[in-house]
């Protein structure tokens, strides 16, 4: 591994600014070792300089978590997050080496997606128990991207003319085909969209901004 790759940090992976080239899922999936495939990609930019969305970054985070905890990421999530939230019916696939896929291939019920949104809305608390540190909630939902793209720690930040302040921002998670979790703390709002879109996967954002957010203003 060259010296530039050694400078890649967990924060770079969280903010999609590792600088590693990302050829796409279609290139990674056929490879025998996904972690090695991601790490062997050439460095396109200095870590921390450019934000480029990459499922490979997310998969490295899953591999790091498994090594650090000595637990499969799925089991770790069941124990510390899904279990307390009452999330039982979900699918989360693994690569050929038993590493839970970090960037895609998770499916769960709409109501369970909402539980995750409510957890963030309430600063990491669920039934009076602090499941996720409030400091992490705050850091992960701030715009930390190095370019104009608004992005935190794996959360997108929605900014438009209706945003009154930093506290009034909406942050959201976005999945393939138009799956969304929207959270706005100022307005005490959590909303979920499930879709099967192939063309304009951003249309739920427009619905959220033009209808749900405006209704909440009233």
UniProtKB/TrEMBL annotation:
GO molecular function: hydrolase activity
InterPro entries referenced in this protein's UniProt entry, alphabetically: Beta-lactam-related, Beta-lactam/transpept-like, Diverse_Enzym_Activities
Domain called Beta-lactamase-related: residue spans: 3-200
Enzyme Commission number, as recorded: 3.-.-.-
Keyword set, alphabetical order: Hydrolase
UniProt xrefs under PANTHER family: BETA-LACTAMASE-RELATED (PTHR43283), BETA-LACTAMASE-RELATED DOMAIN-CONTAINING PROTEIN (PTHR43283:SF7)
Protein name in UniProt: Serine hydrolase domain-containing protein
Organism this protein belongs to: Paenibacillus shunpengii
